[in-house]
Specification:
The structure holds two protein chains of two kinds. By secondary structure, chain A is α+β, with helices and mostly antiparallel strands. Chain A has one domain: Chemotaxis protein chec. Helices cover 36% and strands 36% of the residues of chain A. In chain A, a hairpin with a 2-residue loop joins strand 7 and strand 8. In chain A, helix 1 packs across helix 3. By secondary structure, chain B is mainly alpha-helical. Among the domains of chain B are: 135 residues; 90 residues; 116 residues, Rossmann fold (3-Layer(aba) Sandwich). Chain B is built from 31 helices and six strands. In chain B, helix 13 crosses helix 15. Chain B is elongated, with a radius of gyration of 32 Å. Chain B starts with a helix and ends with a helix. The chains are: A alpha+beta, B mainly alpha. The interface between A and B is medium-sized, with 27 and 38 residues.
């Protein structure tokens, strides 16, 4: 576990959602997960390499992501379609970029891969790791989402 | 500064070149003007970002200036200076960082506090130790975890007492199953610091209420290796079955001769009387090589509990020698009821090494084991032994292999899924279900179990262990219940867990029946039968 690496991504998430989607996200109580599985309606996963290796994932509930994307596009989005999937990939990409930029400032260089987006009610994604997974729950007025960090 | 006076008259490229020349020339005297530009031009402006990078570049060559900027009232200047101080490891800025961190802690400005602590940890100044210790109890869990991690890296023995306090408090908070970040960090830090106080404490929390915390404790103790062996040995003097089982598992993971000696002593001194402890001890002995453990395992051949006997056989299968082979042969030749139990256990444990060795010594014993394999009705088991016989290739072996052909047993019909991280237990379930005419699929943890279920094959029942690596039985059951197709699938949880609270969580997760070890084959058969 390395909280110093996690924190820049939290700041980046709050910043990105506030500036792109006019959504105030509040950080909940972080915890260590019992298992390597994330469950939700829409998830994005991005791999990291460099001074830390691992994956970052974000999992949204349906209501939360539809509200965020509606605010981003300025029109109501009512179903999880390709545009929503693209938006999740983009959010994760920007968070990954901002977070890595901050870490670079702290002297830690990380490279990010291209995000993958998974959809489907109650789908399951698994981090391939034996290390503990840090989950950071966020809440917004329109539902919750969770960032998960799994770093070797 | 003169050069910057013409800044506004230049085009974008000219502005970039001008700012770049300041950094190249190390023009620290330009700092006040650059800060003024920053205050006037926002970051979102195209040149705004370049101005901020210029400040960063200039501060990188000025330790004193960086220290001054840390105390700046301008939040952006302060943040950049803190970042530079950490990146450049400016020891001269440590005092300003400490002062700023304390102010930020008082004002609960966690962003600044986090950055200042990161910078101080990069500089590594001893003056900051007290700050890290103070902030261990911060209300912000990320700050608290950050300081705990740093103190762990620094192997700060003075923090051990408070780290223990953090882990104890979360243990007392109830069995929600969740492990908060400071607790996880404290366990990892104690595992890094080690020393008798930290290791003994972790051993005392072997049975922490949160499964995630428990797993981290076990990993830390296994990683501490030799240092853990003494404190784990003391667990066997207590009167706690669950803890003794967990201690045996960790000693197995440590896998050293010393760890094996502790297991041997536990058996010799009568500290492992409960069958579940004996099972765990014998299973762990399979991973702790040494003459003493081998002698103990040989004595274990006299065990009467079928499950325990299978653990003994499984462990002997990986460290077989001629003396053990001869002793087994002698027991089997006696023709007693125990001889027959031994033969069945060798078959059910899939102990192909023992089978090959005994067959090589005495073909009649090999034939007895082959009979037990055939009688088991277990198709997969039969195939494994048949393959071994063909590999051995003697006339007698090939003849027996031919006899097993077509005795593949149940390959269709009703199927159950067994999930357990103990190979001996999976073999045990396999032998029970085969005798009931059922086929079985096995998985070593909840995650694998979910994959098996998700593959779409129909199952009529699931047997699962509670404590497993990767994904435990409770979470596995929760996830099973989330599949619409498996809402009504009976789930029997089998465990050594005796705490009532854990059973309540298991029931809430959707477990249908709870069966506590030790149990007889008949009891499990009856329970399975009830749901078929």
């Amino acid at each position: 576990m390395d909280v110093q690496i996690v924190n820049p991504f939290i700041d980046a998430t709050i910043h990105v959602l506030s500036s792109l989607a006019f959504t105030q996200a509040h950080v909940g109580k972080p915890y260590v997960k019992k298992d390597p599985v994330a469950q939700g309606d829409v998830s994005g996963v991005v791999g990291l390499t460099g001074e830390a290796k691992g994956t970052i994932s974000v999992t949204f509930t349906r209501k939360c992501i539809l509200t965020i994307v509606s605010k981003m596009f300025g029109e109501e989005v009512t179903e999880i379609n390709d545009e929503v999937k693209d938006a999740v990939g983009e959010i994760l990409n920007i968070v990954s970029g901002h977070g890595r930029q901050k870490l670079q400032g702290m002297g830690k260089t990380l490279k990010g891969a291209i995000p993958t987006v998974i959809t489907g009610k109650n789908h399951v994604i698994t981090h391939i790791t034996t290390k503990p997974i840090i989950a950071i729950p966020f809440n917004t007025e329109n539902g919750d989402f969770t960032f998960e960090f799994c770093l070797e | 500064m003169k050069e910057l006076e013409r800044f506004d008259t230049l085009d974008f490229l000219g502005q970039v070149n001008l700012l770049d020349s300041l950094v190249q020339n190390g023009s620290l005297e330009a700092l006040p003007d650059v800060i003024q530009l920053m205050e006037r031009i926002p970051r979102s402006d195209a040149i705004g970002l370049v101005i901020r990078n210029t400040l960063k570049g200039l501060l990188s060559s000025g330790e004193d200036q960086t220290a001054q900027c840390i105390a700046s009232d301008n939040r952006e200047v302060k943040t950049i200076a803190i970042e530079v101080a950490g990146q450049k490891r400016f020891a001269g800025a440590a005092g300003a960082l400490l002062e700023e961190a304390r102010k930020a802690a008082g004002r609960q400005e966690y962003g600044v506090l986090f950055a200042a602590i990161s910078a101080l940890s990069a500089i590594g100044t001893a003056e900051a130790f007290d700050l890290f210790r103070e902030c261990m109890d911060s209300e912000d869990p990320l700050i608290s975890s950050q300081c705990i991690e740093i103190l762990g890296e620094l192997r700060d023995e003075a923090s051990v007492g408070r780290l223990c306090g953090i882990v104890s408090r979360s243990d007392a908070q109830g069995a929600s199953g969740e492990c908060d970040l400071p607790t996880a960090s404290a366990i990892t830090a104690l595992g890094r610091i080690r020393g008798s106080e930290a290791v003994s404490f972790l051993v005392s929390k072997l049975h922490h209420r949160s499964p995630a915390a428990r797993r981290l404790i076990h990993e830390a103790l296994a990683a501490a290796g030799a240092e853990s062996v003494g404190p784990l040995a003391e667990v066997f003097q207590e009167d706690d079955v669950d803890k003794k089982i967990l201690a045996a598992n960790i000693l197995g993971l440590i896998g050293s001769r010393e760890a094996g000696d502790v297991l041997v002593r536990a058996l010799d001194k009568g500290q492992a009387l409960h069958p579940n402890i004996r099972f765990a001890v014998y299973e762990a002995m399979g991973r702790t090589p040494g003459m003493k453990t081998l002698v103990c395992l040989a004595d274990g051949l006299e065990e009467t509990d079928q499950m325990v006997l299978m653990a003994v056989i499984s462990s002997l299968d990986v460290q077989l020698n001629p003396w053990i082979r001869d002793r087994m042969a002698e027991s089997i030749r006696k023709g007693t009821a125990h001889s027959s139990a031994l033969v069945k256990a060798i078959a059910a444990s899939r102990s192909l090494n023992i089978f090959e060795a005994l067959f090589g010594l005495d073909e009649a014993i090999g034939a007895l084991i082959a009979d037990a394999v055939r009688d088991s009705g277990d198709g997969e088991l039969t195939e494994q032994f048949r393959g071994k016989l063909k590999e051995m290739g003697t006339n007698k072996a090939l003849a027996i292999a031919a006899g097993l052909e077509g005795k593949a047993g149940n390959t269709g019909g009703r199927k159950i899924l067994a999930v357990d991280d103990s190979k001996a237990m999976l073999n045990y379930y396999q032998s029970i279900t085969a005798s009931m005419g059922l086929t079985i699929a096995t998985a070593e943890n909840g995650r694998q179990g979910l994959d098996v279920l998700a593959a779409g094959e129909p199952f009529c029942l699931v047997i699962t262990d509670m404590n497993m690596p990767v994904m435990d039985g409770i979470e596995f059951t929760r996830q099973v219940r989330d599949f619409p197709d498996f809402e009504g699938l009976p789930v029997i949880m089998i465990t050594t867990e005796s705490e009532r609270s854990q059973q309540v969580i298991a029931r809430e997760a959707g477990v249908t029946e709870f069966l506590q070890k030790p149990f007889s084959m008949e009891k499990l058969r009856e329970l399975i039968g009830r749901y078929l």
